[in-house]
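Minutes, project check-in
Item: structure for the 522-residue chain
Input as provided by the requester:
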Amino acid sequence: MGKLFLRLYLLLVFTFAIFFAGINNLEHILKGTLEETYGDLSKGTLHLIDKRLAAAPHEQWPDLIESLNKEGGYRLRLQKLNEIELPDETLARLNEDRMVFQNIFGAHYGYKRVRDSNLVLEFPFNQSEYRHNQHVSSSTFKLLELELIDYPQAVWNERITEISKQFTFPVSLQRLDDVSLSGRPNLDLINEKITWHKIDGEEYIYRLIKDSSYVLKLGPFDDPVTLDYLESILLTCLAFIVAIAVLFWVYPLSRDLNRLGVSANEFGQGDFDTRVVVAKRSPLSQLATTFNAMADRIQNLISSHKELTNAASHELRTPIARLRFGMEMMQTAIDTSERERFIKGMNADIDELDNLVAEILTYARFDRDRPEMAFQRQDVSTWLEEIVNQAKRNMESVSLSYNVEGIKDKYAKFEPKLMARAVNNLLQNARRYAKSKVEIAVSIDEETFSVYVDDDGPGIPEKERQSVFDAFKRLDASRDRDTGGFGLGLAIVDRIAQWHNGTITVTDSPLGGARFIISWPV
């Protein structure tokens, strides 16, 4: 779960990093839109400035610009074209008679070339929205007033109608009594200050013409869609980017879930060879591995169950047949001693059946479920000595010796009861086939702990050494019932070794028989 969360979190962080990198470059992205917007808004104002400058000698241009600056708006400046440092592409647009913008020390400056000259008008664009609108429109109002005061008030409406054709927004004239404002805007208007006001979301700018009862009205202004809905556009882009990022994450997850569902359905319908295949980096990789391990386990259990059923039926058939034969013979027996001999044989067959059933149940339990493994740190020599002492009681016919040299005060970690059963099974197996001698030894190094069980019996052919650990597997030499055993002891040893992440192997013994070696990590 931690890896899954980390992947999704890093993916979202990467997505937001890209988004905010775009926000940081928003000025560059919207530069063209801003230039076009402010160029349209200032078109009429710049036309009037050009007209005033064209009607006056060049020497008077600085005074004319200074008179406009006295209106309290943004301070205009006249600069020579070769004195302005602009990027080549911006300079090219400026020479095309377009308004351009440049960020200088965190402030935005607009530039417009004066017609038929090598001079450029410079004006800043930085303040609050109200003050900005006052400043940006002050020169426009001043120029409009200058256009009107040369004419009688009776023709002002006609003049405004004619002049407004040069603007991209409405320019109108209203009487002061017809303007409905209140509070600060109304106070500013009466005091002949520029007033900015919003009506139903539309922006308007007013100014009372000096020494008159007329008010100049500019607006409403149509902002481009990219500015009106900039926030919505950005949020939509963010949602789209996040959706794409999540899609790239969810699609492989959905695909792998479908694969897992299909495999589970096929497995449930009896196709036990079905396995889930997903990429190692998939979020469901661990789940797929667990499913495949479960499928392997179930398949092995089913196979083992079939094998156990077949083998058990075969193993049970022989003593049952002997019992039936013994009963028939007992019915035809002539004297008491003969009946007792048959009864004794039948009791032996019953004991064999009892032992076989016990062994089968034990193997089935070991093969079905892994028991609770209570690993303990054990003194190896003491633990082994107890096992040998118990095993000697059942080894009257052979000698049992053990070597614990070099492992005094040595410790290993394992499940003592299960490992004791494994070693005891190896000793009992060695006793069955040994001629006269069985030896047990132990070795321990930094990584591995090993137990060696040797006998001087006939040994095990190399080609049959791997199969000797299969359930109900008995070699030709062990088929005689006198040797005992059902071929389950070594299978149990193999399973216990696996539970300890160890191995069980068989090789030639120095005594001439077989050597069994069970090893597991220390």
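Outcome recorded: The radius of gyration is 51 Å.
No further action items on this chain.
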